[in-house]
Amino acid sequence: MFRWLLITLLSLGIVGVSVWGYQEHQEKNAILIQAENSYQRSFHDLAYYMDLLHDKIGSTLAMNSREQLSPQLAEIWRLTSMAHGNVGQLPLTLLPFNKTEEFLSQMGDFSYQTAIRDLEKEPLSDKELQTFESLYEMSGDIESELRKVQNMVLNENLRWMDVQLALVNNDEQADNTIIDGFKTVEKTVEGYSEGKMNASLMGTSSKKDGFSILGDEKISKEEAKKKIRELLQVDKETEINVTTTGDGATVPLYSGSYQKNNQSGYIDITQNGGHPLTMMINREVTEAKIGLNKATQLAEQYLQDLDFEELALLESNQYDNVGVFHFIPQVDDVWIYPDVIQVKVALDNGDILGLVAKDYFENHRDREIHSPKITEEEARKEVNPNLKIHENHLAIIEDDLGEEVLAYVFLGTLGNDSYKIFINAESGDEERVEKLKQAEIRY
C-alpha cells in the first residue's frame, strides 16, 4: 500500500515539474518572440525610412520653390529622427555603429537648421547644395546596403536574437550575415566621413566633444566587475555577466547584468574611470511605505555616495510605487539643465532602482556664464499675463538647435495647469513652454 502511495506521489511530482517546466519554457519563448518581433519591426522600419529619406533629398535637389523647400527640409528632419530612433531599437550596442548614428544625427541637425531659417533672406548657398548632393549619394548607398541585408533576412529567415547572442558571446562561428551587413553600412559612412562628405555637414552637430570629465585612466575588466557588483549591490554568490562595447564606440563601456530569483539588473559604466552612466533594477515593487520626501533624501544620499556634488532637486514624480527624481547642478544660483541626473527609488523599502547619469557626464564642464542682458522684470513682461507666476530662476538650457543659452525660467499656473516658461536672457525671446504634471511644480 505504501509503495503504491509513494509511486502515486512521485508520479504527481513528475507531472507537476513537467507542467511547470513547460510553462516556463512557453513564457521564455513568448519573451523571445516578442523581442524578435520588436527587432524585426525596427529593422524593416529603418530600411523603409532610409528609402523615403533618399527620395525626399532627391526631391529637394530638384526643387526651385523656396515656399516648398522649408516643409521638405522639415520632412527630411522628421524622417531622419525616425530612422535614428529605429537604429536605437536594434541590438547593436556591442557593434560599432556610431558613424552611422552620427551621420543621421548630423543630417537631422543640418536639415532642421536650414528649415527654420528664412530662405527668402538667406537662400541655400552653393556649399549647402553640394552638401545635399553628398547626402543624396550617401543615403542612396546606405539604402542599397540595407536592402541587401533586408533581402538576406527575408530569404534566409535570419533572426535578430541570434545576432544579439553572437555579439554577447563573441561567437565567430555563428551566421553573422546581419552583423557583416551592418559593418558594410558603417564602412560606407566612414568612407564618406573621411573623403566625399562636405565639411559643412560634419560641423553641424551642436554637441561639443562631451565626456570630458571621465579621465584618461582605464579600468580593467576585473576591476569593472568588482565595481559593477558594488553598484548593483549584489552578493558574491550571484553571477554577473560583464561585456565590453565594440571597438570604435563613442564612449567605451563595460556592461554588467545579473538575474537572481525574481530580480534582475543592468548597468553601463565607462571604461575610463568606471563611472556609472545607466543602472536599472527590475523587481516587483509592493505597496508604498515611504513618501516622496523620504525618498528624496535617500536619492540625495545615494548621489553623495557616488561623489556627485552641488546638486539640487529639479523635480520629483511618483509613478505607481516608484519615485522618480531629477537633479541638476547649480553654479552661482544658475541652474544647469543639460547636466541632469535621474534617480528612481522604490517606495516600498527605499531601494535605488535606477540611475541615468549619461547627460551629466556628457555635458558637465566648467562653463563661462555671462550676465543676462535683460532684467528679470523685462523677461517677466514676455510671459503670458494670464499666467500666475510662483517662482523663477536663471538657468542654462539647450535651445531647439542644441545650443546652450542663458534663460529666465518662470514656473506658474494657468487655470488648473502648471507650466515652465523659458525666456532667453539675452534676446527676450520665448525659447519654449513646458506643461507640467501638477505634482512636478515646487513652490
UniProtKB/TrEMBL annotation:
<dbReference type="Pfam" id="PF14620">
    <property type="entry name" value="YPEB_PepSY1-2"/>
</dbReference>
<dbReference type="InterPro" id="IPR025711">
    <property type="entry name" value="PepSY"/>
</dbReference>
<feature type="domain" description="Sporulation protein YpeB N-terminal">
    <location>
        <begin position="27"/>
        <end position="162"/>
    </location>
</feature>
<dbReference type="InterPro" id="IPR048402">
    <property type="entry name" value="YpeB_N"/>
</dbReference>
<feature type="domain" description="PepSY">
    <location>
        <begin position="373"/>
        <end position="433"/>
    </location>
</feature>
<protein>
    <submittedName>
        <fullName>Germination protein YpeB</fullName>
    </submittedName>
</protein>
<dbReference type="Pfam" id="PF03413">
    <property type="entry name" value="PepSY"/>
</dbReference>
<dbReference type="InterPro" id="IPR014239">
    <property type="entry name" value="YpeB_PepSY1-2"/>
</dbReference>
<dbReference type="GO" id="GO:0009847">
    <property type="term" value="P:spore germination"/>
</dbReference>
<dbReference type="Pfam" id="PF20769">
    <property type="entry name" value="YPEB_N"/>
</dbReference>
<feature type="domain" description="Sporulation protein YpeB PepSY1 and PepSY2">
    <location>
        <begin position="180"/>
        <end position="369"/>
    </location>
</feature>
